[in-house]
Design brief:
2 copies of one chain form a homodimer. By secondary structure, the first copy, chain A, is an alpha+beta fold. Chain A folds into 3 domains: 201 residues, Aldehyde Ferredoxin Oxidoreductase,  A, domain 1, CATH 3.60.9.10; 194 residues, Aldehyde Ferredoxin Oxidoreductase Protein, subunit A, domain 2 (Orthogonal Bundle); 159 residues, Orthogonal Bundle (Aldehyde Ferredoxin Oxidoreductase Protein, subunit A, domain 3), CATH 1.10.599. Chain A is 41% helix and 14% strand. In chain A, the strands form 5 sheets. Chain A has a 6-stranded mixed beta sheet. In chain A, strands 8-7-12-9-10-11 form a 6-stranded mixed beta sheet. A 3-stranded antiparallel beta sheet of chain A has the order 13-14-15. At the A-B interface, helix 4, helix 12, helix 14 and helix 15 of A face helix 4, helix 12, helix 14 and helix 15 of B.
């Protein structure tokens, strides 16, 4: 069907269009996989992520904007300023489909502009606009101004992707936002757009997304839809949003609390999805073409945390801002979520970074930091007093971080660099520089492997082991039992999810579906009649290995590990009391390498050959 | 004694030194007078204040840094982006004397730099430094980083002048700050430095400030010092700071409350100097060489408004942030004061602008704004709910204003433009675009004339009629009585204060002193043995007329008037209940013009000749 790539060169505000050959699509599909391949081919090794040589790939997949359900997403890829290796992130809302409708299946952002710029793409026509007036503006207001300029006030028509002040000011934890409240948040790629001075992209158009075999596609879609609609998790997500997990994960003692020093939070219920639904919910909402509708629309009417009607907060945000900072006030969390979105932050990274600040502050007072660093920290805090549980210091810190003001200049670098600078590197809970999300692997032990081996750093979306350790999909395991079958499932998910992210679909499909469901859809959409489940899964494995090769080529970031606190310090409370990750990791990691055909985090030459990466065979161990 | 001017051209980071001829000094003294003269000669008419053609004059006077008491100040002059006419402002602390000690009596900032820059001046040596790392930083942290770079940690040695993010982002209500907490705040000249990309100036040195006749100078200084030390107002200022005025002005029903709609505030005591001294004061503090020590050093230890040890708040700030916004919480005011200083705002202008926002918000809800404007305002407010008396919305708004985020983009333009844009121009209480300070002229009627005829716009420092209408200096008047002698005193003060600002001395001297006191000092310092009180007062009058000519030349800003609300709406409460300014103004203004020799706000040719401004005679009416 052809995959049209718009290459934008910001250096001289020019563009060209090219088509991705079908054999590349068959090998990497689209979205995440295609992005990894293009990045590997086009981004020179060892460049500074904040330099004109870096590129940002904004990609849809073969199912985006088709009738396939949960196909309203897009994927972003580039070299991450946070981790220094390949970064990528995925976002819902409306932008992905509207990008395709605008005439292109993906955008490659190259070079760097001297002055702020935004781009409009309407029915194939590309225009560059000076963005001086948008620079410094929040995401919400930026969308408003762009829609005014484009005479497209209705939020059901067209879509805006934008960075906020955080990205402009090169914060390494800045998120690429779209549709105001949706974030491609992880790995700080918004800073790359900030460096390139690209403030926003508007897309609109009436291109029809064709599939090769319409009838078959309709039929396959319906099959998948039925499975999704029938699944109990789909229902729970629609009713309580992702925050339905708060009570569940807390009950498992795996709800990281007070910067990962505890596994349960006594105020969990007050920040749960159930509580949110009862008190602050305006409605639920779905991405383009979604039937689950897990997004929240919420508001706070009065008081210091008043927040207008807006989207969120999600489970990860509630945890990162709430339990991890010991904040049990949902109103404060809603407001902070609004600010973080508007200023353009990855909420997981931001919440972790704030928790690190609190820990550093506590240590400084106890004399547990190097003396000069303690003094510098206390000086830099100015009027911020980041006591555990205090929301107001958080609100102040968010502004400072977005504009790199005072202590914010250090927070803008993310948790790892903040902790390192002030002499307490182990205070930052991260893998490869990426802050961990809302599941303590000491309480859900397969998450230990999932985090440690995630190519982009500490994340829950490469393999969501919670699905089998907690939610019972595909089958229920004891989250505290060390069981090698979990390793197989983690590897399977990593490969499977590589496919999902490349298609580009929502992972909430995967509670109800499996690889074969997508074979039929892809056959119908792309005309790949001989596609099999084995090939598709091998494609996922190819993508996973390719991503790892990017780190191998960089010479760092391929080591698989977990933070010391999680490896060695037993969790002090709750059902997982006494557990640490070390025991599981010692069993899991060697077996994982065996399954993957990796040595010390590096794919072997044999493995590369097996998964079809001969092209990069020189990088093999 | 020679007056050495350092001319800095930011375009190519070059400088040259020149000497101001003695005859110019004798005609304009220094500081404000010399600045007005140089601006008139050098700044071309009708230029945009935010363009490389504008210049900023940072000037000391013949008594700065000498043994003369209260000589620790400096004066800034330039074309104002807020008013579009001549702007100037005066500040204390340590910067003025250290500028002289560094080897220069004044700095003229010309041109504009392509990239952020800061300047160090040490014992005559001038160096330009890239300021990229300081850009975006708060004033407090900027000083810290510069002192580190200059290896001068002690705040008793050398001094830093800086702009904050507000100035960088060209806010028209931004203040030039020095010694962290001191502000040359009025008329927004920090935005001109922001445009020129000059972040800061560090000065240090060991030049000795010579006077012609040391013995006589010592003797004259002692005479003045005795008078100051003995005066009861000096004592009150030392004990309670400028905020000693809160209860006094409130008791007179002239304490503007809720954006100038009332004259008394029921929570005045809780924001008074007495309350501040009891609850939050760490110590008092003086500028260089000061015996009064009116500055406050305060802190808030805990709670949402926690503030580290820092200077302020002053009376005007307490009023602008407090009563005028209906905020009766001293802790919130202290925190807001800290933020405003650190971000670099004129607190009078900022407090007025916030009060206007509250009024606009109220009107929008009541349907009293044009429909489209009301909608736009409510949209732009996002999560800010600026109810009267709410401190949290203020804190949020300060950040937004500093970085021109959302509604802050409009607030950064100041009260007049904010009110105008949203269709309610009379909501902004200003003269010539400059927001009025903390005295309601309906309750102290000679302030009506003082405000209306102030050359730089609505200000209390051209003629401080409060001194006779309230404080009884030189004699006590009834503040509500219409009395033509007050007009004579206003004119006298305008001329006298022109001299004080040109010397450059603190106006708090003037409660205890009069013109003859400065004749002796100047004779001794400059060797102008034939100087008389008459000549000195005529010099003041010359300066006052010259400033007015700048507006005449611009073709606007010379009309003398008061805002409609003060002219026509009777004050509804307190001792001045039922009073409005119109009646007094109708008597005062014509007599004032008669005394000045002005016609409709313009000096006549005869007047210009009389005051020694033949050079500009063409501009005379």
């Amino acid at each position: 069907m052809g995959f049209k790539l718009l290459r934008v060169d910001l250096t001289d505000w020019s563009y060209r269009v090219e088509e991705v050959p079908d054999e590349i699509l068959r090998k990497y599909i689209g979205g995440r996989g295609l992005g990894a391949y293009l990045a590997m081919k086009e981004i020179p090794p060892h460049i500074n992520p904040l330099s004109p040589e870096n590129k940002i790939y904004i990609l849809t997949g073969p199912l985006t904007g088709t009738g396939a359900f949960e196909s309203g997403r897009y994927h972003v890829v580039g070299k991450s300023p946070l981790t220094g290796i390949l970064g990528d992130s995925n976002s819902g809302g409306q932008f992905g489909p509207w990008l395709r409708f605008s005439g292109y299946d993906g955008i490659v952002v190259e070079g760097a502009s001297d002055e702020p710029v935004w781009i409009s793409i309407v029915d194939g026509e590309v225009a560059f606009h000076p963005a001086k007036k948008l620079w410094g503006k929040g995401v919400v207001y930026t969308e408003k101004l762009i829609r005014k300029e484009m005479k497209t006030p209705s939020e059901h028509i067209g879509s805006v992707l934008a960075i906020g002040p955080a990205g402009e000011n090169l914060s390494k934890i800045a998120a690429i936002m779209n549709d105001k409240y949706r974030a491609a948040g992880r790995t700080g790629l918004a800073a790359v757009l900030g460096y390139k001075k690209l403030k926003a992209i508007f897309v609109k158009g009436s291109r029809k997304i064709e599939v090769v075999d319409k009838e078959k596609f309709k039929e396959e879609s319906k099959k998948v839809l039925d499975k999704i609609m029938k699944h109990s998790i789909s229902e729970a997500l629609g009713k309580f949003g992702t925050a339905v997990l708060v009570n569940i994960i807390n009950a498992h003692g795996a709800f990281p609390t007070k910067n990962w020093t505890r596994g349960t939070f006594e105020k969990a219920f007050e920040i749960s999805g159930e509580y949110l639904a009862e008190k602050y919910l305006v409605s639920n909402k779905g991405c383009w073409g979604c039937v689950i509708r897990c997004a929240r629309v919420s508001k706070v009417d009065n008081g210091p945390y008043r927040t207008p009607v807006s989207e969120g907060p999600e489970y990860e945000t509630i945890w990162a801002f709430g339990a991890n900072n010991l904040i049990g006030d949902m109103e404060a969390i809603i407001k902070l979520n609004y600010l973080a979105n508007d200023l353009g932050f990855d909420t997981i990274s931001l919440g972790n970074t704030m928790a690190v600040l609190r820990e550093l502050y506590e240590k400084a007072q106890k004399g547990e930091l190097p003396e000069d660093k303690a003094k510098e920290l206390l000086d830099l805090l100015e009027d911020i007093k980041p006591d555990w549980g205090d929301p107001d210091s958080f609100i102040q810190a968010v502004w400072r971080t977005a504009y790199r003001h005072g202590i914010g200049d250090y927070m803008a670098e993310g948790a790892a660099r903040l902790a390192e600078y002030f002499g307490s590197p182990d205070s930052a809970i991260h893998v490869r520089g990426l802050e961990l999300p809302a599941y303590d692997p000491r309480g859900i032990n397969s998450m230990a492997l999932s985090y440690a081996t995630s190519n982009r750093g500490g994340c829950h979306l490469r393999a969501y082991a919670v699905s089998f350790d907690v939610l019972g999909v595909p089958e229920k395991f004891d989250p505290l039992a060390i069981d090698k079958r979990k390793v197989e499932l983690v590897k399977y998910q990593q490969d499977y999810f590589s496919v999902i992210d490349s298609l580009v679909l929502c992972k909430f499909n995967t509670f109800a579906t499996d690889v074969p469901d997508y074979v039929g859809l892809l056959q119908a959409a792309m005309g790949w009649d001989d596609l099999t489940s084995e090939e598709l899964l091998l494609t996922g494995e190819r993508i996973y290995n390719l991503e790892r090769l990017f780190a191998v080529r960089e010479g760092h970031g391929y080591k698989d590990y977990l933070p010391k606190r999680l490896m060695e310090e037993p969790i002090p409370d709750g059902p997982a009391k006494g557990k640490r990750a070390k025991e599981a990791m010692e069993v899991y990691l060697p077996y994982f390498y065996e399954l993957r055909g990796w040595v010390d985090g590096k794919p072997t030459k044999e493995t590369l050959k097996r998964v079809g990466l001969e092209e990069f065979i020189d990088l093999g161990a």
